[in-house]
Amino acid sequence: MATTLIKNGKVISTTGVIAQDVLITDEVVTALGAPGYFAGAEQGADKVIDAAGKYVIPGGIDVHTHMEMPFGGTYASDTFETGTTAAAWGGVTTIVDFAVQNTGGDVQEALASWHRKADGNCAIDYGFHQIIGGVDEQSLKSMRYLVDHEGITSFKLFMAYPGVLYSDDGQLLRAMQTAGEIGAMIMMHAENGIAIDVLVQQAVARGDTDPRFHSLTRPSPLEAEATHRAIVLSHVAGNVPLYIVHMSAGDALAHVAAARHEGRNVFAETCPQYLWLTLEETLGRPGFEGAKWVCSTPVRSKDHDPDYIGRMGHGHQADLWKGLRMNELAVVSTDHCPFCMKDQKEIGIGNFAQIPNGIGGVEHRMELIYQGVVAGELSLERWVETCCTSPARMFGMYPKKGVIAPGSDADVVVWDPSSKTTIGMDEPGRKHHMNMDYSAWEGWVIDGKVDTVLSRGKVIVENDAYVGTKGHGQYVKRGLSQYLV
Ligand code: DUC
Ligand code: ZN
Ligand code: ZN
Q1: Are residues 206 and 306 in the same domain?
Q2: Average pLDDT, stretch 350-361?
Q3: How many domains does the chain fold into?
Q4: Same domain, yes or no, for 366 and 265?
Q5: Dihedral class, residue 441 (left if φ above 0, else alpha if ψ from -120 to 50, else beta)
Q6: 305 lies in which domain range?
Q7: Last residue of one domain, picked from the residues 342, 369, 394
Q8: Which of 394, 418, 442 is at the close of a domain?
Q9: Per-residue pLDDT tens for 28-65?
């Protein structure tokens, strides 16, 4: 029996910041006590972590990653080993990755192949959502099987990428009806892919091939329209739980806010790239450099689109931060889908439509959203809620994950608010552990730093070193969402 004591820290939960010591026995939290309460146990403890001046938070949970995903003619460059190790460096102790069924493929075989990629390779715990790339009798049957037997209770559908992962409205409705029968969550990539493909073809024909046209051919009204359509379909299917992924636009968010106001089971996530980055500063850089930030949904203009009448007279980012404060956006994930510039993003030189879509960020979410706390956009409690607790509740992992409480997995991060983190790889001292040849956040300086990370009671990051092991991470079978009335 191994005992770990974390003393003198301030424990942050969704409801407050409290000076408390945390006692861990083997893999679970066994008790929280007033400072000094466990002084008697300190002598016999196997490890004592002094968190004086630091915050103690539940391990981060990133519910949207794509390790080794085949996409855009190549593969996401992080393996489960490299990606989960980078996640650990960033204070993340659980990821939920997407197993992919392509059109015509078998769902259960797809899931088995994801298990093969992850099994024995992960530094931290992991679960899976299932992408349904082809809605038919067989895949609908498999959805039931996955809920009943595999601990997979959420299914992603695509309104974008016609001919690749796209489902039409009838297919979306059928999958939603099945989800309603089994209590599962539908996760939606909400962009009108049919209209986007027309705009892309027209732009390329005009010779508008620079990376910035990736965003300009996916205007926010087409995210808003798809979001609204998904909400209507989930309503018609019987108030089926719907979670819009990687929301980037204020006009799309307005539909989520309205549906939530009506009491529907509609939820959404956003990602750090939409909260902090703009089209002008990223995709709009000269030459091909903008390819680094090609992802979908796209990073948007600092102002609302020129022909969009801003609801509040400011840009998408302000709407998204406000949405996070108001719980219109419940979760921050990363949509971690890394590609190197060399040989991967470069596929799209001369044609933005060929650039593999994705940004790597699993390592930096906790840091970048903490920066929102420093900037006055969020409270400390809401930081923990959107990055740790709500992801666990939304996807059926609470209270095993997402909280520091007796009986919970001892997934804990000690966070140092008085240090700084400089993200990037171009200079010594900068932080970057993902398997990419660039950082989307090069040179960003964050007030705060991951100090120590424990995964199920085992220290995996301390003293600026990764001390975990490949294969420590276990598969997490998930229950139904705990966010429903
Ligand atoms: N968006 C991305 O940017 N990459 C992977 C899939 C997706 O929907
Ligand atoms: Zn998507
Ligand atoms: Zn994704």
Answers
A1: yes
A2: 98
A3: 2
A4: yes
A5: alpha
A6: 61-394
A7: 394
A8: 394
A9: 999 999 999 999 999 999 999 999 999 999 999 999 99
Going by C-alpha positions, the residue among 199, 330, 159, 322 that lies closest to residue 250 is: 322
253 lies in the same domain as 348: yes
Instruction: Name the nearest CA neighbour of 84 among 424, 479, 478, 474.
Output: 474
The CATH number for 49's domain is: 2.30.40.10
Using an 8 Å Cβ cutoff, are 9 and 20 in contact?
Answer: yes
CATH label of the domain that carries residue 256: 3.20.20.140
Q: Which residues pair with 416 in a beta bridge?
A: 449
* CA 271 to ligand 3 center in whole angstroms: 10
Ligand 1 atom having least distance to the Cα of 359: 3
What is the 3-class SS of 276-305, one letter each residue?
HCCCCCCCCCCCCHHHHHCCCCCCCCCCCC
Ligand 1, CB cutoff 6 Å, lining residues: 66, 71, 189, 295-296, 335, 337, 357-358
CA of 333 to the centre of ligand 1 (A): 13
CA 214 to ligand 3 centroid distance, Å? 16
Which one-letter DSSP state was computed for residue 209? Answer: -
Q: State which of 65, 67, 69, 71 you would mutate to test the pocket of ligand 1, scoring each by most atoms of that ligand within 8 A of its C-beta.
A: 71
Ligand 1 pocket test, pick from 164, 357, 359 with the greatest ligand atom count within 8 Å of Cβ, gives 357
Please say if the pLDDT value at position 84 is more than 50: yes
CA of 116 to the centre of ligand 1 (A): 22
Quickly state the pLDDT bin for 404 (edges 50, 70, 90): very high
Neighbours of ion ligand 3 (CB under 5 A): 335
